[in-house]
Specification:
- It contains no helices and ten strands.
- By secondary structure, the protein is an all-beta fold.
- The protein has a single domain, classed as Jelly Rolls (Sandwich).
- The strands form two sheets. Strands 3-2-1-8-5-10-4 form a seven-stranded mixed sheet, with no helix packed on it. A three-stranded antiparallel sheet has the order 7-6-9, with no helix packed on it.
Length: 134
C-alpha cells in the first residue's frame, strides 16, 4: 500500500456535515457543507495531519434524549454543532426532508429563527449527544 503525501497548499475535502438553516421565508432546510482540509504539522515531530480551518466556539454541553423522545417544531437555541455519541436522532426540517444521525454524526443547527425543525430519538436506546456552541 502506498501513501500519497499532499503539498500543504493543496486542500482536499475529506469531511462534510449537514447544516440546518432558515431561508427568508422562515422554513428550514438541510445544506451539505464541505470542509476543505490540508496536511499540516499539527504536532511537531509526527506525520502530517489533515486539518480544517479552526472555528471559534464558546461552550460544550452534554445532553440526553430518552428513547422515543419527540419534540414539536422549534428553532435552535443558538448556532451549534451537534455530535451524536450513542443512540440515534432524527431531524425533520420545514421542507419535509428528514435525516437520521447515529453515533459519530456531526451536524450544524443554524436555524435560530423561523419554524425550526423537529427532533426525535429513534431506536430503542437513549440518545446521548453533545453540542458545541458557535
Amino acid at each position: 500500500m502506498t501513501e500519497r503525501h499532499l503539498d500543504a497548499t493543496e486542500a482536499v475535502v475529506r469531511l462534510s456535515y449537514p447544516r440546518v438553516h432558515t431561508t427568508p421565508d422562515g422554513a428550514s432546510h438541510f445544506q451539505d457543507i464541505a470542509v476543505p482540509m490540508a496536511p499540516v504539522a499539527y504536532v511537531p515531530g509526527i506525520p502530517l495531519v489533515d486539518v480544517g480551518t479552526p472555528q471559534p466556539v464558546t461552550a460544550l454541553q452534554f445532553l440526553r434524549l430518552e428513547a422515543g423522545y419527540t419534540s414539536d417544531w422549534h428553532p435552535a437555541p443558538r448556532r451549534q454543532f451537534v455530535m451524536v455519541l450513542t443512540g440515534a436522532m432524527e431531524l425533520t426540517v420545514g421542507d419535509g426532508e428528514t435525516r437520521c444521525f447515529g453515533p459519530g454524526s456531526v451536524f450544524l443547527v443554524d436555524d435560530t429563527t423561523g419554524t425550526g425543525h423537529q427532533t426525535r430519538a429513534v431506536g430503542s436506546e437513549d440518545c446521548l449527544w453533545a453540542t458545541v456552541a458557535l
